[in-house]
Design a protein that fits this description.
The chain is α+β, with helices and mostly antiparallel strands and about 400 residues long. Helix content is about 30%, strand content about 25%. It has 2 domains: about 150 residues, no CATH class; about 250 residues, no CATH class. Strand 10 and strand 11 form a beta hairpin. The longest helix has about 60 residues.
Amino acid sequence: MRSKQRNRRGSVLVMVAMMLAAFMGVAAIAADIGRFYVVTGELQTAADAAALEGAATLQAANTATPEPAVDAAVIAWVAATNRADNNTLSTTADSVVLGFWDPNARTFDPNLNGRRANAVSVVLTRKPVGVFSQMIGRTTGLPLARQGIAWIGNISLNCMRPWAFPYPPFYKRVNNLTTTTSPPPDLDPTAMIAFQASSQANRTFIVLPPETPYPYALPNDSSWRGYNPPSNANGNANSGKSTFQDMVSGCDGIAVNSDAGNGNTVPNSGNGGACGAPNQTACWTIEVINGTNGQGNSGPRPGICAPFRGLDAGCYANTTTQQRGVVVDIAWSDIVGNGQSVDFRYVGEFELQCYFTDPNQTCADIPGPTKTGYPVGTVVGFAEGLKSRTLNPTDLISNAPSNVQRLFLVK
């Protein structure tokens, strides 16, 4: 009996040893699975952050070939800020791809085919070697890879006045130049930051009405155009008076396509209007700004400015507080095609200070001694900044006529 018990005790020890080995293997596999999940999460976080960094760099790039700058920024960002499997990460330019993200199809196309890149894809990899792999003699780790795609999404703006302010004078002012090429290049974000911090006088623009004869005797920054707004959020341009005035006055849900490109200017009568302006577009705008009758088919509506005060051309936002100046969104644009089309460059906030409805009016905000004598339809105000390509807490700089851009992680 005793010998049989001793034999049983020996077999139990063998079984326990075998079970311990199996348990250790299972525990090693479980630990490896958990570790791989952790490393996968670290890779995804790093790829997402790297894609966002690449998209921000793409947006700020003022060159026709932004890929080298994006590659360098992503490679440096990954090496300096991200870790996975308790080690620093690295990547190469081959893993950073510029492409076009289609939000409707939710697809990323690396073949631009003439389109402007609006997204950046980053793939990061790591090969962690698990405990179980080492137990069975494997030295090559399990290949793990994660992709992040960041999209520079334009959010269509449904409240931008259809005024195309001349981009060349704006470019020269931002860069402290007296001349520029035609068409001027994109803005340097660093110069734009300095411009926004400059004096109010330096940011004041005097924009004459369309069709103003040149050269004009008084200081000015060329003339504005009324561009052809779409009649609804999906486009379908309508250059009629009603659509133009509705968009100036209340916008009425009319959106500007974020990749509108060129748009026709609003047709003018060419013979001047009853309001005394050199063309009908300025007259249409006067009606909307001061809220008088004749605003398209919708009848009189509250104007952008409170009723004008005699010979004061100032735009007052509120008749009670007498607050002067109204901030509106406008497009800085190139006029092309013999003045028949508008090439949108940037959308900017503009504080409308004065709008001349009579050449005898005075605008106190004009720098210098000559503050009167400007033609009907002249706009005076301060460039407050751009909805543009420099990332800030609320919006970005854009080279498309969109009010706001956001960086979206889409994959």
